[in-house]
Amino acid sequence: MHSVLLVLISLLGIYLLQTLLEFRRAIRNVGHLSGPRLLLDPSKFLVRVIGSALPPIPYVSRGVSWMLRTKHQDFAAAGRDATAMVALIPWPKTTIYLADAVAIKEVATYRAKFPKPVYLYSMLLAFGGNVIASEGEDWKRYRTITAPVFSERNTRLVWDETISIMLDLFDNVWGDSPEIVLDHCVDITLPIALFVVGVAGFGRRVTWTSDLTVPPGHQMTFKDALHIVSTKLFLKMVAPDWVMNLTERTKRINLAFSELEQYMAEMVHARRSAETKEERHDLFSVLLDATSDDPNGSLTITEQELFGNMFIFLLAGHETTAHTLCFTFALLALYPDEQERLHQHIEDIMADLNRMPTYEDMNRFTLSMAVLNETLRMFPPASTIYKKATEDTNLTVGNADGGKTTFSVPSGTEIEFHVPGLHYNPRYWKDPHTFRPERFLGEWPRDAFLPFSSGARACIGRRFFETESIAAITMMMSRYRVEVKEEPEFIGETFEQRYARITASDLNLTNA
Ligand code: HEM
């Protein structure tokens, strides 16, 4: 007993000593870059969960959603657009954060020198190999197969379906009510995004009032399975199987996953055994056809990889879209003058068209697009984009005083693009804390706008998202005005207080 204790104490001592030596070495390596020195590494998942429960504490934790909260502050304090965080637990690690458009472009462009550290994405492999959680040859294969799936014809489908989902909401759900009161706008933006991905992603139409009967051989409707999977993906990814089998609620989540897989397997079977192939443009059908039709088989993926990629489309596209739409409506409610301008813009085009807008009309709604871009600038759904240096190198960033700093980046260092830092960087954006959509009309600093990342690993679903969102915003603003509900307890609050209250978010809002 005594000797076991002695061994344990010695091991702990060795760990502590090694950790401290490694921490010192890490600080020396980036001594030229200032930035937080922290006890808890906020990029590690477990630490992030524990850290989320803690408020920001200097030298200990940064708190939840720290990048969106601190925006450009760390860089302003450092006087340059790069900082280095050195964290101690679970293991000393240096991360370089960038908010400089030129340095970010360089890192995003040289994929071999700065690949994606896919070990940070291993949880996403739970559903099968896929384009987001891979690198090297596997990624090339997935990307070659998946990129053409997001075709012009798919985008047209996204537009048409979004318009009819919105009309269905107005006519058959909201009806003649002159005023609709919502507790939270994700109550409508999540279903909108879900229905669009249902039909344009999976090829199955689900609407506000349809898909209420469970088909034979199933225990859940497709709509319920899709809804549960899309909102509980995160829990399923992190919880071990035995946890998922503990309660009725978690068992139902498990069931939703197997039901969705079963629906997809049936869709594969139906499509493969159909005598005449129907021409379809949803992501699932096109992906399935592309992989079955390749004559020399070099572009094949397994059924598991097909499912893996579909789950990833759902994960990458659903909440990001729903939350961005929600922030858009919140900002329009907070800035009524901007909302009025948008109304006028949409009304003028609609009057000119004298019919429902079609996909061909999309590019006329320039202010809808500008409103969306400004929302993405202020509330980017992906705050960070991970890279890693595979060789010793240097990077150069701009300083607050107009000069430049060049610093060394040792091989193995993790680099993160600090998206809110870049989006609130006053070197690129005038008055960055104000919602001003018109900054996206005319010339704007494209390299300083990074919601979809850039380079070869940029978002594959950007056009899908933009099409859906422009259609949804345009339709909503053509019929309704959005206001913040007046509540007695908030009478007398300042604009800043109201802004903070309305835009406060927990990035895992719908995963709770
Ligand atoms: C507001 C909407 C969206 C935002 C802000 C967004 C953002 C991003 C970002 C930042 C990346 C790079 C991630 C990284 O490097 O780790 C990415 C990649 C990706 N996105 Fe999106 N996305 C959005 C919508 C969508 C939609 C609608 C889909 C699909 C239906 C989608 C599918 C993907 C896929 C498959 C990748 C991986 C691409 C690759 O690694 O080659 N995204 N997205």
UniProtKB/TrEMBL annotation:
Q: Which GO terms describe its molecular function?
A: heme binding; iron ion binding; monooxygenase activity; oxidoreductase activity, acting on paired donors, with incorporation or reduction of molecular oxygen
Cofactor section: heme
Keywords assigned by UniProt, alphabetized: Heme, Iron, Metal-binding, Monooxygenase, Oxidoreductase
Q: Which residues form a coiled coil?
A: none
Quick one: which pathway?
Answer: Secondary metabolite biosynthesis
Q: Give the protein name, as stated in the record.
A: Cytochrome P450
Key word Magnesium present: no
| Domain of life of the native organism | Eukaryota
Q: Which family does the entry's similarity section mention?
A: Belongs to the cytochrome P450 family.
The answer to whether keyword Heme applies is yes
- What does the entry list as the binding residues for heme? C459
Q: Which organism is it from?
A: Lactarius akahatsu
